[in-house]
Amino acid sequence: MKTYLTLDVGGSAIKYALMQEDLTILEKSSVPTPMDTLENFIETIGKIYDQFQDQINGMALSMPGIIDPERGYQYTGGALRYIDKLETVEVLKKRCPTNITIGNDAKCAANAEIGFGNLQDIQDGAVVILGTGIGGCLIKDHKVHTGKHFSAGEFSFIKTNNLDPISWNHAWSTRNGISGLLQRVQEALETDKEYTGIEIFEMANKGNEKVIKGIDAFAKEVATQIFNVHIIFDCEKVAIGGGISAQPLLIELINKNLDEIYEHLGFDVYHPEIVACKFRNDANLIGALYQHIQTFK
Questions:
Q1: Which CATH number characterizes residue 261's domain?
Q2: Tens digits of per-residue pLDDT, 143-179?
Q3: Is the CB of residue 188 less than 8 Å from the CB of residue 159?
Q4: Which residue range is the domain that position 244 belongs to?
Q5: In this model, does residue 132 exceed pLDDT 90?
Q6: What is the mean predicted confidence (pLDDT) over 255-274?
Q7: Is 281 exposed, middle or buried (0-12, 13-18, 19+ CB in 10 A)?
Q8: Which of 40, 216, 243, 261 is the most buried (most CB within 10 A)?
Q9: Which tens digit of pLDDT belongs to each residue from 26-74?
Q10: Which of 25, 33, 31 is nearest to 5 (CA)?
Q11: 173 burial level (CB within 10 Å; 0-12, 13-18, 19+)
Q12: Is residue 246 within 8 Å of 279, Cβ to Cβ?
């Protein structure tokens, strides 16, 4: 069985795993993400490669930014400001001489669901990652749809208020990122106290009605934008990812609010199934591997 080195490059850490094609993880660890120079970044990846070079059939990376996965080119690097219009695969292969693929992080999460998770049985759909912002991906013909300019599914930028299209106050990332969840709960509790996502759902799961009301308001906004995405793209399923997607209450409330939209629609429009992503913390590692296997099959 073939073995690969998979890496998930984030804003604070690079997670990596020695993974077999059946998703068996043989070894897993992480190192801090260099934020200073490209040279330091390449050498950090190189040192990880050095540990496993005799054991692997290739290297698959999930990375932030706008990426052409077929070319291995990054137009941007997200939080990694030293990556800008870079032939990333070409540069990495000079230090790490093996087959290498790169993919956008949210699109890797979608690939994990397409290849091994809860979207294996669909042709068209979407993935919505609820995190600091909104990660997203459209799936067309059972493949990640990158778009002509490799920015299809950049849901964070969606405007939710036509009266304020300029500021970020009503961007989808602001309304339904983790700060948006906190704001809805603070409004319901009439407080400015800060809570983590874990604390919010602990209170809700203990029956705090005000917190549940705040989460419900948050879920209504998520459901509204899922409806809009579906009306444009005609999704069979929409998978919800991110840490809070592990909370059954959230998925339940998103479904409830989406059902209410359909109940008052007055037209016979297909209702997509809403599911939680199967993979969470390792989604990007698994999705990067799936993309790599598909590239070199």
A1: 3.30.420.40
A2: 999 999 999 999 999 999 999 999 999 999 999 999 9
A3: no
A4: 122-276
A5: no
A6: 97
A7: exposed
A8: 216
A9: 999 999 999 999 999 999 999 999 999 999 999 999 999 999 999 999 9
A10: 25
A11: buried
A12: no
- Does residue 287 lie in a domain region? yes
Average pLDDT over the chain, rounded to an integer: 96
If one counts the domains in the chain, the total is: 2
Residue with tokens 């930028």: 157
Q: Which amino acid belongs to residue 5?
A: L
What mean pLDDT comes out for the span 19-24? 97
Element (H, E) at 198: helix 197-205
Query: Any residues with CB less than 8 A from the CB of 72 and at least 6 apart, and which?
Result: 87, 88, 89, 90, 100, 101, 102
Q: Which residues fall within 8 angstroms of residue 44, CB to CB, at 6 or more apart? A: 14, 31, 33, 34
Kindly tell me if the per-residue pLDDT of 78 is higher than 90: no
Contact 190, 184 (CB under 8 A): no
In a domain, 117, yes or no: no
- pLDDT > 70 in the chain, percent: 100
> Across-strand partners of 208?
none
- DSSP-derived 3-state class of residue 275: strand
- In sequence order, the 6+-apart residues with CB closer than 8 A to the CB of 50 are none
Contacts of 134 (CB under 8 A, 6+ apart): 128, 155, 156, 158, 172, 173, 176, 177
